[in-house]
Amino acid sequence: MEDLYTTLGIGRDAESREIKKAYFDLAKVHHPDKGGNEEKFKKIQNAYDVLSDDDKRRMYDMTGNANPNDSPQGGGPGFSFRVDPFGGMRMPGMGGMGGIDLNDLFGGMFNGGVKRKMKKDKGPSKMHEVPLSLKDYYFGKKLQFDLDRQVFCGDCNGQGCLNWKTCGDCRGTGVREQMVQIGPGMMAINRGACGTCNAEGKMRGQGCVICSGKGLVTQGKTLESQIKPGAGVGDIITFREMCSENQEYDRPGDVTIRLVKADEEIDLVREGYSLKHECTVGLAESLLGCSRKIKSHPGFPDLSFDIPIGTQNTEVICVKGKGMPNGVSFGDLYIRVFVKVTEDERKTLELQNVILQSIFTKS
Asked: What is the CATH number of domain 1-52?
């Protein structure tokens, strides 16, 4: 029976994406619709069905049999054993017991299942916060980040060595077998992970000098992004797959940047595309009207605005078009006015009480 790995033309340590690529490449040539041999294609299809399924592949690696219902014979006459796909071995039912798990009977001594370590799809992302001033949000800003990331060494393809050799103890299977006597005339095969090669089936050869055997080298990278005028606090910028590469993942994670508010002493507060400001005036200024300035406005330094005659306490004045840019226009500026009577004004009110009463009570 031809080895399934040989059928697909891949090594026993091939990853899922390598298996899929090998299958599609062969299917393009041997599929009957492409003029290929039907029997040859059936073998290719069967090899892919087994090796692309984690449990079936694990079974095949341990037993050399792609069919989990087939039982390799072992032990004494009249007894047969099959490998449990979750590790260990099971003896077919005797006396209506429906099957005896040898691990249950003998305290786990047959815990020989080898699980192939499969890569996860994508590594975790890393987030960094970047504080921006109100001026940065108003005009936009070009951001640059210098990043040192670990990438797979090009000389050894991230393996840490320049060549491999087949493990002699397990003959490249990653599994070692040992005959165990479980009773008079009864033998079983204990299958377990090969400790010599760490169940990989291969041993490292000559180490890579470039990466000192680590499989990774440092790569400097400059990331750039243009923040548009009017960008919001909390906005996320994503640099896809810019984290360090890792053997545990098919793809590296993303580097994400979160925009936050910088600590600055200004008399403006942003809410969406609006800006808000508070000011305090005296009684006379609120009655007669006055002008004030905002010095911290990013687009209009020393922005002057008028407080109309008779402005009341906590009244809000709207200045159109003096808020944040929103892509096509600008939001508005809202000014809340607080009226506070000064000591001098209080004394004047007391001294001129009669005159004021005649003014404000005059019909």
From this structure: 1.10.287.110
